[in-house]
Amino acid sequence: MDKLESIYKILYKAFGPQHWWPGGSPFEITVGAILTQNTNWSNVEKAIKNLRAAGAMNPKRLHHMPPHKLAALIRPAGYFNIKAKRLKAFVHFLMEHFDGNTTLMKNEDTDMLREKLLSIHGIGPETADSMLLYALGKPIFVIDAYTKRVLSRHNIMSHDKTYKDFQELFHAAMGRDRKRYNEYHALFVAVGKTCCRPKPRCNVCPLRPFLGNPGL
DNA sequence: GACCAGGCACATC
DNA sequence: GATGTGCATGGT
């Protein structure tokens, strides 16, 4: 097939390079991956800014920070009590297994690491894969609500298929190319924000000439 | 004021 | 296994 290749090219031409993940160390990206769960990125940026300003954007400081203090710093990102616990759980894992060193984590076998990440409270498939791809540069495709929405609307894959089903579609069709995975996922977010929204604006969909009218 | 945003865990049936 | 709910801020 190369429907997925064609869609990638169309989206890239329409929206251009997205420059994900914006700024930051690998550790900061893992923190961002947790903070952005079901949350607008602009709110996450405020929380990241607070953590930086407090000198807390490193594993040791976060590890030793009381949960209520962490929650206060990340308040703008929403779900702050939940996310404070999740960040603590992740940082605890990072300290225990890799001495707080993301480079050591990167050296771990990808499949093994993914399983370990998924076993951490508050880290599901999307967050784990975001960490693997954007923080550690592993060739793992990230599936999110946008990806599912765009693909299902255009009848590429049914919305009720599993995360794994969607992910395997990309892994099989595109080869394991981390740079393209990075860009492609970001492009799904771009198209999901402009036309393939919850309330669609299909008149401006760049995919329509290729795929026809979305099945809504 | 309703809707939406780069999910996940948990309860219930 | 499927479905529903709590978590919460800030922009549109």
List strands and helices in order, with pairings.
Blueprint: H1 3-15, H2 26-35, H3 41-53, H4 59-64, H5 67-73, H6 80-98, H7 102-107, H8 110-118, H9 125-135, H10 145-153, H11 163-174, H12 178-194, H13 208-211
Helix pairs in contact: 1-12, 2-3, 2-9, 5-6, 8-9, 10-12
The chain binds a DNA duplex (13 and 12 nucleotides) through helix 2, helix 3, helix 6, helix 9 and helix 10.
Could you please describe the fold and organization of this structure?
The chain is mostly helical. It has two domains: 3-19 and 142-211, Endonuclease Iii, domain 2 (Orthogonal Bundle); 26-135, Orthogonal Bundle (Endonuclease III, domain 1). Helices cover 63% and strands 0% of the residues. It has 13 helices and no strands. The chain has helices at residues 3-15, 26-35, 41-53, 59-64, 67-73, 80-98, 102-107, 110-118, 125-135, 145-153, 163-174, 178-194, 208-211. Helix 1 (3-15) crosses helix 12 and helix 2 runs antiparallel to helix 9 (125-135). The radius of gyration is 18 Å and the shape is globular. The protein binds a DNA duplex (13 and 12 nucleotides) through helix 2, helix 3, helix 6, helix 9 and helix 10.
Report the top-level CATH class of the largest domain: Mainly Alpha
Report the principal-axis shape: globular
Q: Fraction of residues in helices?
A: 55-70%
Described by strand count, sense and barrel closure, the largest sheet is: none
What number is the mean pLDDT? 96
Looking at CATH, the homologous superfamily of the largest domain is Hypothetical protein, domain 2
How many domains, in number, for the residues? 2
Radius of gyration: 18 Å
- Tell me the β content: under 5%
Low-confidence stretches: none
Under CATH, the topology of the largest domain is which?
Endonuclease III, domain 1
Give the number of DSSP strands.
Answer: 0
Q: Which architecture of the largest domain per CATH?
A: Orthogonal Bundle
